[in-house]
## 1
Amino acid sequence: MQDIGHFINGKRVAGTSGRFADVYNPATGEIQARLALASAAELDAAVQGALAAQPMWGATNPQRRARVMMRFVALLNENMDRLAEALSREHGKTIPDAKGDVIRGLEVAEFCIGAPHLLKGEFTDAAGPGIDMYSMRQPVGVVAGITPFNFPAMIPMWKMCPALVCGNAFILKPSERDPSVPLMLAELMQEAGLPDGLLQVVNGDRESVDAILDHPEISGIGFVGSTPIAQYIYGRGCSNGKRVQCFGGAKNHMIVMPDADMDQAVDALIGAGYGAAGERCMAISAAVPVGDATADALMEKLIPRVESLKIGPYTAGNDVDFGPVVTRAAQQRINGLVNSGVEQGATLAVDGRKFSMQGYENGFFVGASLFDNVTPEMDIYKEEIFGPVLSVVRRKSYEDAVKLTMSNPYGNGTAIFTRDGDTARDFASRINVGMVGINVPIPVPLAYHTFGGWKLSAFGDLNQHGPDAFRFYTKTKTVTSRWPSGTKEGASFAIPTME
Ligand code: NAD
């Protein structure tokens, strides 16, 4: 069996802790590799390498750093098929979806090519007699990223590309479930010209995460994953004096108004509810039709579409809509939640529990389920299911639908389907959710805007990618200078003002 280690100081190295985690192929249920789990000492060795490399890199001009990103983008395109295959083998998502995972990361690398412009500071000429004032953005130093299983290419790239192009060294702690692509990304970054030590991939579990949180030389941490872990990392990282941004779980609502194009709404719910087996933080898990007539029309169209979804391994090619979920535990948890929905009185219109994938009986497949008449008290509404399960929560009015969405503790994404501009505008302006779609079910902003939720979906005040990433990965320094130096005003004991 293959052993997967770490990527330190420009090369792959084996783990030395003696601790391992199994890496599965979710389609077959077989263990395909053993992943080394780093100790605190191994993490520290990675930090020491990063500390040695960072000052030179931080002093390299931004255009040269941007050129590394340019070559990295070219290498991602050249290696797209290889990356997608490795990603699908460990994650389970289809090949087109795996390519999308790589491409949404690549787009952030492309955005980072604009670093020389984005890192420009501000300058005030003649702020006082002979005084100029300017601010500059400087690297934070050594920063770390802790990433989830569901986008093993995109999310590591959302972190590493801006961090590196801003002149930092970056320690990546990827998910234990699908570690191969993050290691391949590190190799491609090196091939693109990144000097050794600046991108260290340390695989591990809670032990290495805690070592990151407590390491005095790590100055910033970006996390993406579930809300309880986001809260833990935010609290401990901040109390250790680091700058921290953590993005957590979600429960995304899509309101369907009576005037919506019902075919468009159904297409949207099928893709956003069941794509990637529902394992997306921007998946729609609650459909909220307004009025019983809208709900009935929606259900009538949804049921046959959900029943005909094609499930299978990524090797089956383009004929598959979604693959298995990531682990046996996830499969059991999702089926358990579907059971709870039935027990708590929801109408199970399509039952995915009995689905079995012929020839892949040991794989972690879950059939598509569709619930109607879901109420906010039910576990299927309260929990982030992270599986191919869509809940229809009927509301009587637009105001009720807005109230439901607003009172949900998560605030990652939401959408409204309507033909009415006034309603859409009111919704976008009032809703307390970070990313809003109008007739768009998965409103993931493009690389040059920023990505982030509200409420329990994000902790910290800056978003991911876009201009916010350049703020998070740099410190601002403001310089006040007086030339000619011969100007003499005498000593003053009051705070300087412009009076
Ligand atoms: P997770 O929280 O289980 O794991 C995320 C990372 O935290 C992994 O690297 C993991 O090793 C580490 N981790 C797990 N348990 C830990 C512990 N007890 N102590 C310290 N570290 C720990 O999340 P996941 O299952 O990999 O990913 C799915 C979750 O991520 C979902 O909740 C999803 O909504 C969320 N997500 C959010 C966004 C976003 O931008 N808001 C994006 C993608 C995924």
## 2
Amino acid sequence: MKKTIVFDIGGTQSRIALFENGQIVWRKQITTPSQAGPDATVDVMAQLFFASNVAGHTDLAIGAAVTGHIVDGCVTAHNPDILRDWQRYPLQHRLAERINHPVRLFNDARAAAWGEYRFGTGQGFDEFLFLTVSTGVGAGLILGKRLHIAKNGFDAEIGEMKTDNGQTLENRASGTALGLLAMQQGYENAKALCDAADQGDENADRIYQASIREIARKLADLAVMLGIQRVALGGSVGLRSGYLQRLRQEMASYPGIYQIDIVAAQLGHDAGLVGVADLVITD
Ligand code: BMX
């Protein structure tokens, strides 16, 4: 029976899952050694792979979703605070070499977009966007029922889009950015800031809501630029209770042509794994 092994390498957490007949039958999660350099990540991914007991299996498909900008199997982290020393790192080659099996590589948010489009809340929408607000801010685009993959890797690097003050969206609205702002303002971390905002702290609310306003502005632009009908929201910040309502509230301030249907990702944190598992067997 065909088995599929999928890695999902994120800025904070990484996962491996074994799929059989489209279902996850085994999984493990670890903290990404994000500050130890890419070789350290390959080491732990290889250890997880060998722990799965499928290493010798003959009918095996393997894919990896990874945070970062991908060109020709090499990964670059735009933000070294998220992944240190990932500059055109040949992940596809290095991982394949370590586990002795070819690996197909996808950006994590693009993979999640495909997962949601095929099996989640994107089903039936020809133009669909998956947006993750997490360690970084990432996205994946379905255009004309196809996953948009650009030759130069800028398929949907929404976090690199500019905001009014010249910063990137990621530097304004990611969990990492909220964490920095939180500490500057005397909150312990991003979660403490968002919790305080939800409990009525006006200062925290101003910072939290401003970050969501920037996301809304980009979604409004993309709605009229690409004809996106639905957005699925994912990521540890995006899936926080109340985030979706705050984002919808910001979107409501735009005229009708900018309105876009925004929902929570149905597959939750598994969207990337599910997307890659499907891409490696059908694509
Ligand atoms: C960043 C960028 C994207 C990624 C997104 C979400 C890096 C390392 N990553 O914008 O490629 O899709 O973060 O990644 O530059 P996550 O780690 O927050 O899930």
